[in-house]
Structures are given as structure tokens and as C-alpha cells.
Amino acid sequence: MFRLKLLAIEAMLTKGILGRQGAHVRSVEFQKRGLPHAHILVIFSGDDKIKTTADIDSIISAEIPDKEKNPRLHKIVTTCMIHKCSDRCLENGKCKKNFPKAYCDETSIGSDGYPLYRRRRSSAERPSEYTNQYVIPYCPTLSAMFDCHINVEACTSISAVKYLYKYIFKGSDRSNFQLESSELDEIKQYQDARYVSCCEALTRIFSFDMFNRSHAVENLEIHLEGEQVVCIPTDRPMSPQELARRNRTKLTAFFELCRENSDSQARARECLYHDIPEHFVWNSNLRKWTPRKRGGKRMIGRMLTVSPRSGDCFYMRMLLCYRRGPTSHEDLRTVNGVVHPKFKSAALALGFLENDEEWLTCMREATETATPYELRTLFVSILIHCEPADARGLWNKFEDEMRQDFHRMYPDDSQKSTAFAIQALSRCLESNGSSLDRFQELPQLAQFEQYFALEETNRGRQSNRLVAMESSHNQEQIQGILEGKSTMTEEHEVFYNDVMSEITKESNVRRGKVYFLEGEGGSGKTFISNILLAQVRSMNKIALAVASSGLAALNLIGGTTAHSRFCLPRSLHELSRCDVRKQSHLAELLRLTELIIWDECSMMHKYAVEAVDHMLQDLMDNALPFGGKVVIFSGDFKQMLPVILKGTPGLILEACLKNSYLWSNVAKFHLTVNMRLTNNNSESVREFAGLLKSIGHGTYPTCTELGADYIRLPDDLAIPYNSPDDLGSFLHSVYQDMNNLRINELRSYFGCRAILAPKHSVVADINTTLLERLTSDGEMTYLSADSVAEKRDSDADACEFPIEFLNSIDINNFPSHKLHLKVGCPIILLRNLCTSEGMCNGTRLIVLELKTRCIKAQIMNGSHKNKIVYIPRTTTIHDGEQNNYPFELRRRQFPVQVAFAMTIHKAQGQTISHVGVYLPEPVFSHGQLYVAMSRAQAKGNIKFLVANGQYEGLPGIYTKNVVYQEALE
Fold first, then answer.
1. Torsion sign over Cα 428, 430, 433, 434
2. What DSSP element (H or E) covers 354?
3. What gap in Å lies between CA 833 and CA 382, rounded to an integer?
4. Distance in angstroms (rounded) separating the CA atoms of residues 544 and 596
5. Where does 761-887 show beta strands of DSSP type E?
6. Among 55, 163, 280, 726, whose Cα sits 20 to 30 Å from the Cα of 775?
7. Going by C-beta distance under 8 Å and a sequence separation of 6 or more, which residues neighbour residue 598?
8. Which of 566, 308, 531 minimizes the C-alpha distance to 433?
9. How far apart are alpha carbons 64 and 76 in whole angstroms?
């Protein structure tokens, strides 16, 4: 019976009863005390992979079914899937399997990589019965079908999978027994032997397979030239032909295969080493690869792991992962016609490794077309984000190019031109949250004080430079902003007067005040914020402008991101604190600050705001909210909320600022007048604004037949999806003219249009498709240099993860290992590089030139529109905990991605004239539909392509509008 059920369940899994199967591994295990059981590890493919807690809940349950609605499944679960603690599992009075589990209203991901399944408290539970706390996770479909114990778990981290593979291959049970003998021999007295039970013996007699897997694995050896292992018989002589044959390995035979000119071997020259087993079979007698006739899709080539400590052999393996059709070891070391003496130097030349020579190449390539100002900006980006080992050497190498504009002003005084170039560097560093003092190896301002006015010398050397910078805003710009006070609405005036009355109070009676300014797009939140900033600064007081995103910060005068201004930690938790020392320049700046404006706070985690509160209380030595400062938060809770990886709605809401202990101290102001509508009498604009408002508030009529979240999209906005050709037509409708325009025309063309989708995987597919369609004069493929920054509490062998596994990791908003770009394509920055120059996370640019180590691009939108910038490769570190990896991933790559399409989350804060929204599946989080729809300024400029949006008997096209009403209350 066990055998029949095992074959049946394997057949059902192969057919995709739980999802399309990519691969599986199965082993049968026999215990000493009873019947056999099987371990089956299933790997899903494509979109069927388990990625969210909703995916887990659709397959796995840890709750007792309703006895009235499903009596059969209720009986099976209560009979087979209840853990009953006994002496076998109790240790010191506690269950070794951690039963009973805690009640949990929603599924979440645990720190060990295993889910914490939903186990709701039932009102029907009685004290004498087993509850959901004792249910072993199961799949309702499989349990109902096979009526037996089937424990189903979701593996969501590499740590969990690693353990499971070790468990599956751990082998048979072992048994220790003692031999009784009169002869005293301690070594022979105890034996370690394999234990075979009756069930296992019968299984082997019947020749039932104990192990099964979907794919065969061909191990591929790695060795340096002439260092392969050769086995030579000692009992007979060998002919030269036999010696040559024995000397041939799978690797050298691969090289020979690539050298051959026959048609059948031409395929080998297009293959990577690990792809060869799919197309060729290893003949161990002839010791050569022969063409495969069938079955290649079920073959996996696996290059043996080589430790980084193995030197050049490790780098040779790295090159084999990416070099197609090499004909020899020497050919493998050849890069762009240059034969490198070592595989390591070849890997460096290809950018697979981190090396400071890269910055020399980057600057050298940029000098071909960059202005001195642009070179200095690039140099600052390298200093801040790339941490070059020899910053002084880099400066010395390109000093002439970086001071060329000042040299033209002072041709007879090279020292003076150098002084002003250093001054420009210092100001650029300061405006990006750094300072020249951090780089003591570079020339310092004090060395050139004779060239500067006294106030500039004081600013550069004696005073707090952060305070000096925040006290020296452009007065003409400030006055220009204050002239806009005449256009304030009554709501603006009420808010303005309230804030200014707090700021102008005497210091001995001032208690500070915290505001929240809420309003829809067009209500003038940014407008009134800039007026308040300008007013306070015109009074020679300090006002700080921060935002939760780089794009939002650009809209505020002198704005920067909250993370950089307050030194917030990357990982946020209840005890998170800002890294600001009491004696630092930043601490002095914060003490002197009169007003703080924090934009887009609705998408910021409450722990970040609370960390700033604790920091300001500490600096000001009081217990007032934010140390008694006047703080203005602004945002729109109809937009997307804080991102919680694999978080449930409850966790997302809990992370909101509204659920902070600070919220009770906040004075709320709501702007209701839409300034765009007061200046536009168009009926269509007013209609669209009303539509957006109802979508955002969740008051738009829903379809009760489909569910409380489903709405019918307006017919003039929605396009039905009937076949894959519809997607192609949809993409063409948004970008139909891109191959008919010159590159100087593409900037404005791409800058005013984009395609939005909910998920990163969908966006990546669209970008790949459109990039292939774009005709271009140049293109490049960049591969990253990946490594592991091992954490102290991780496994000891974390550094042994194969490089191809690190390369395969693809994380949202993290640079991809393989980046393919074309001249003229739109790109988007994935991190803040130089905020003073508009290079923020989310900035959209168009590629002008592609070099080996730098990208020349032009900003397409915002206050820095048309500015030309140069982008270097940077090292980005991803905390493995966010994706359940037991290590931190270091990736050196250009921090950009193609941006024909972007995720809805990434589009928040962008203004786009022509928007196409592709929904292969409904939105899944609060505010996504509202954000997608509100990017456009008019109803006629947005279209939705909705897959599976038509339902029998219901006219129109439907999709979800997820709104958490708790966030709006």
C-alpha cells in the first residue's frame, strides 16, 4: 500500500496538482521501530514558485477543517495530522517539536526560513480537545486524496533547502552493538553497522527504488593545465595512445570539442561547460563527448565546487561559468585579444572581481567626453560609494582634467586652480552628506586658505560645515518662493500661521509641536512645505527638509533623504537608534534646527520615525516629542505603505506611523482643495480627480459576485487580454514611435511614458522585450562581481557558496548580475548616488554612451532635467536576512536597471504623461491601484491591460482594488 500511494503521489505532483514542477528529489527511509516513509522535495518552476504568504496559504494549512462543511477532511486531519506529545518527544517536560504552536491570525515567515503558519483560535474549541496549536502542516488536497499522514512544508530560504538536502541524503539508520567474547579487544568489542529492518529488507528484495530524482547530474571536474589526475596501471605497460586517452578529462575533452569544425560540434562552441551534458554524452571508455540523441532536458551539468582558497583554479571555474566555447586553457585566459598570464587577471579584466584599477578605467573613460564639473561629480560618487583604496592616487592622476575649468580662469596660477577645484569637491561632498575631512589623504582646504575670502576659510576650516551649509541657502531662490505666498489657499494660510506661531515663540515657553499634513496629489503639500522652509531660512534660522525617498527629497528646497540626514540604520526594529554622536557636527546642526519637514512619511516604517524621536530627545536632554522641535510630517495614506518583506496586512499596518506611540501627539491638518482643479475647468480632469479619490478611499463601487475588493474598471480605460499578442500590441501602443526618433528626441519621449506592473518579475520580462525591439548604435552586457560578506552567526561554510549561485540571486531593487543595455534606452537608478545632482533612487535617465566601466546618461525628469551624469559601478550589500540567506551578498555592478517598465512601488513619486498598466494578476497591496492610476494627469493618458479580468455573465473588465481602511481612519 505504501508503494502504491508513493507512486500515485509522485504522479500527481509531476502532473502539477500543486503547481508546475521544475524538479524533484525523493528518498525512502526506514526507521527501526516501524513502517517506511518518504521525503519528497519539490521545486516549482516559473510563476508557480512560492513567494508570498498567500501562496503558502493556497497550498498548506495548519488548521482543523470545519466538521460541518468538510466532515471527511476533518476526520483525516484529526486522525492523521495531530501531534500528540508522548515520552518520545518530551525533553525536560517540553516537546522537542515545539508543540503546542502559538496561535497566529496570519501566516508569516520565520527567521529560520520556515513559515509560521496561520493557526487561528476557534470559538468552537473545547479545553479537552486538540486545537489548531497541535496540527501538523498539511495540504488539504493531498490529505483528502490519500487519507494518510502527509506533512507538507514550504521551504523559503537557502538554509532550509540546505538542511533538507542533507536530510534526504543522510543514508540508512546506524546501530551500535556489542560483541560478547572472552577475548579482550576493545576495538573489536564495539562495531558500527548499518541497520536493516524487515520492511527495508522486503523492499530491497522486491527491487523497489529507494531513491528517485527528476534530473540526472553529471559531475564536471575542474583542473589547471597539466594538473589533472591520471590513473596509471602498475601491472602492465601502457601504449602512448592509451596514455593520451587516460590523460584526457571532461574539461580537456570539452576544449577539444570546441576546436572541432564539424557541424555536430558547432553546438558545443555555443555552450558553457556546465551546459555540455544537455547536448553531449560522456563516453568513459573513449573518454570523449559524443552527441546526445535524446533526454538532454533532464540532464544537469555540475562543475565541482572549488574553494576561493584554491587560487587560480577558483578563477578558472569562474571564467568557465560565462565563457562559451573556449578551445584551451590559454583561450579561456584571453580577454579582448590579450592573453593574461593568470585566470585571476582575466577575471579582473572582465569585471568579475573587485579591484581599484576599475576607478582608474572609469575616470579615464569619462575624461573623453566629460566636463571638469561632471568629472568632479563622478569623483565624488566614487569617493562616497566605492571607497577607493588610493583616493590620492586617483586625484593625482586626473587632477588636471578636474581643474581644467578653473585653469582657464587662472592660467598663470596652477595652485589657485587646484584650490578652487578642491573647494568645489568639498562643497559637492558636503551637499551629499559627506565632507573632505573624511578623506585626509586628499588636499585639504586649509592648504589653500590664502586663495579664499575670510568667510570661506572660516566656513571650510573653523566652523561646523553642516551648519554653515544649512545657513547659506540661495537668497534669491528663497525670495522667489516667498512670492508664492499670495497664491496660498485658506487651508494653506491656516496651516502656515499655526506653524509660524510655534516657531516664533520664545524659547523659554516653546514646547515644540508635531504636525501631520495630509492631502491628495495637487493639494499643495509640497508647495506649502517649501514656503515654510523659505520663511524660516529667511529669518536666519535652520530648517531641515527630508523625505522618505530620494525623488520626494528633490521636490523640497535643500532636501535630502531621511536615512542620510538622520543616519538611520539599514535594518529597523523596535530598539533601532540613529548613529549620531552628541559631539558630532550633525548633532550640533540638529540642536540648532528650528523646523523639520519630513515628506512621504506614510511609506516610512514607524521604527525609523521613533529612532529619530529618541535621538532628538537625547540631543536636547528632554522628554518632549522630538526634543521639542517643530516637526511636520506630510504624506498620503491612500498611497503605498511601508514595505514589509512577505508581510501580512496586519504587519504592514502595524509598521505605519499611525500605529506609533507618537501619533497621539500629532496635530492633523487635511488639505481638501485641489490646486490643479482650481486652475483647470476641464470636466474630464474633474471627473478623473473624482475617480482617483474614490479608488484611493475604497469607495468606488465593488462587484459583490467576485468579492469585496473587486471593481469594474471604466470601459474607456480597460483593454481585455485574450492572447499573448494582446500584450505585444499593448507595449507597441505605449512605445510605438521609439525607433523613429533620434536620441536627442528620445529623452522627452521616454521621460513622459512608462509601463507599470505590480511585480518585479513581470517588469523584467517587459523590459527585456522592449529592449530587444529598440534599434541602437551600441549595446553592452555588464556582469557583476559577486562575493559573500560572511556574518558572525552564519554557517562556517557560508563562503563556499558557488559563484554561479551568487550570480543567480535576483532581488527586487537590487542590481542584477547580468545587465544588458543599449544606447538610447531608458534606465532608472536603484540607489542614491549624488542627490545634489539629481542622482537619486528612482531617477530616470536615458543612456548616451556605454563604456566598459562607466555609463554616460542624461536625466529625463525633475528639477535636474537634461543634466548629463556619469555612473560608476558601485558595491551594494544586501542583508541576507531580508530574503532568508545565511550571508550578506556583496555585488559590484552599475546601480541601474532598464526602465521601459517599472514596478508600481517604484513609480510612487513619479509624474508620467502616458501610462500603461499591465496586470497579469491583480494588485496585492494597499494603494497599488491608486498609485498606478494617479501617475497620469488625465484620464485619456492611461490604459489598463488586465489578464483574467473577464468573467462569464458579467460585462466589463474587473480587477482588485486593495484598500486597508484601518490606514485611512
1. positive
2. none
3. 9
4. 5
5. 779-783, 785-789, 818-822, 826-829, 844-850, 854-859, 868-872, 874-878
6. 726
7. 546, 547, 548, 562, 604, 609, 631, 632, 633, 634
8. 566
9. 10
Between CA 681 and CA 690 the distance in angstroms is 14
DSSP 652-711: HHHTSGGGSTTGGGEEEEEE---HHHHT---HHHHHHHHHHHHHHHT-S-B-TTT-TTEE
Neighbours of 216 (CB within 10 A): 10
Buried b (16+ CB within 10 A) or exposed e, 336-357: eeeebeebbbbbbbbbbbbbee
Q: How far apart are the first and last CA of the chain?
A: 58
What pLDDT score does 928 carry? Answer: 92
Cα–Cα distance between 626 and 611 in angstroms, integer? 10
CB-based contacts of 201, cutoff 8 Å, min separation 6: none
Grid coordinates belonging to 609: 520615525
Q: Give the Å distances, CA to CA, from 698 to 255, 644, 926, 931.
A: 63, 22, 10, 13
- Cis peptide leading into 100, omega within 30 of 0? yes
CA dist., res. 866 & res. 730, Å (int): 29
Those residues with Cβ within 8 angstroms of residue 310's Cβ, 6 or more apart along the chain or in another chain? none
Query: Which is nearest to 609 in space by CA: 556, 659, 551?
Result: 659
| Residue whose C-alpha cell reads 490643479 in the numeric block | 676
Secondary structure (3-state) at 506: coil
pLDDT at 699: 92
| Residue found under cell 475604497 | 698
Cα dihedral across residues 838, 844, 845, 847: positive or negative: positive
Calpha distance 11→195 (Å, rounded):
30
Q: Are 310 and 225 in contact (CB under 8 A)?
A: no
Q: What is the pLDDT of residue 818?
A: 93
Residue-level pLDDT at 454: 45
Cell of 834: 549624488
DSSP-derived letter for residue 461 is I
As a whole number of angstroms, the distance between CA 772 and CA 615 comes to: 50
The DSSP code sequence of 234-288 is: SSS---HHHHHHHT--HHHHHHHHHH--SHHHHTGGGS-GGGHHHHEEEETTTTE
Instruction: Please identify which residue in the block is written with the cell numbers 559627506.
Output: 434
What sign does the CA torsion over 114, 120, 124, 129 have?
positive
What is the C-alpha separation between 610 and 597, in angstroms, rounded?
Answer: 15
Residue 461: predicted pLDDT: 46
The C-alpha cell 523625505 sits at: 547
Residues 6+ apart with CB under 8 A from 230: 243, 246, 247
User: Is the torsion defined by CA of 736, 737, 740, 745 positive or negative?
Assistant: negative
Asked if 517 contacts 530 with a C-beta cutoff of 8 angstroms, the reply is no
Three-state SS at 631: strand
Q: For residue 457, what pLDDT is reported?
A: 47
Order of strands, sheet of 785-789, starting from the edge strand that comes earlier in the sequence = 785-789, 888-893, 874-878
Using alpha carbons only, give the angle 818, 824, 825 rounded to the nearest 5 degrees. Answer: 45
- Work out whether strand 513-519 and strand 334-335 pair parallel, antiparallel, or are unpaired: unpaired
Identify the pLDDT of residue 192: 55
Domains and CATH numbers, the chain: 2-178 (no CATH), 217-349 (no CATH), 357-463 (no CATH), 475-678 (3.40.50.300), 695-775+900-969 (3.40.50.300), 776-899 (no CATH)
Nearest to 647 by CA among 48, 47, 52: 52
What's this model's pTM, rounded to 2 decimal places?
A: 0.81
| DSSP symbol at 741 | S
On the 0-12 / 13-18 / 19+ scale of CB atoms within 10 A, 138 is buried
- Coil vs helix vs strand at 599: strand
